[in-house]
Hints:
Order of helices and strands: HHEEHHEEEEEHHHHEE
Radius of gyration: 20 Å
Number of strands: 9
Shape: globular
Number of domains: 2
Amino acid sequence: MSRADDDHLRFLVNAIRWENADVTTQLWERGWSVADPNVPDGEPLEWFWPPTAPVGYGGLPDWSHDTMQSRPHLYGPRQTPWTSPTRITSTRTGWLLEYGRAIAQDPDEPREYSDSAELIAELERIQWWPMDVQEAKRIREQRIASTTAALARDDHYRTALPTEPYASRLNAIRKHTLREQSHADDKAPSMPRQAGDLTAQFLLVDADAWASAVRTARAGGAGWGPNGPEP
């Protein structure tokens, strides 16, 4: 390997380390939203986890799913038991984590992080709180198995109305699928196509959305289901 190649490799490794250690980059890639993007430089910036956010928090649309936006009269206003979201706010010394609150779910104690790597390592747990990560994985696996079996039999399966960031991801996969099936030369969706099978990608995101909906139903307590208040 030449010195130029060695320098290039070192640059790439350092870039990857920087990205992995940068909280803002990780939050953005995971689908967290900024509550107020117009915060002046130097002021605390708040990121929140959309699945735990009240309707309209941080400017989120009532419905993010394409079908629901085009036919809101069929769905009515979105309802959620969450009254405040899980938030991560920048501070002078690091980051402040504040857990969400819902009708039947009190928040855990806030926690401050001075080490960015420690916070990034905790993000998956934070995103699934108050559900345990292992339980979330089991729910996702069960969902994939049940939906795959239903699709193989051309049968129906229960759905959940997705929140962000899942709704946008499902919309993009659906658009890429339709574009490829029709062989149309339409403008590609803004979200780039990921390498791999689109149906499999859809099932994976759907499983995440379903597990999130189950978590939200529990946070609502009695009378709440994956699609909101149950009759």
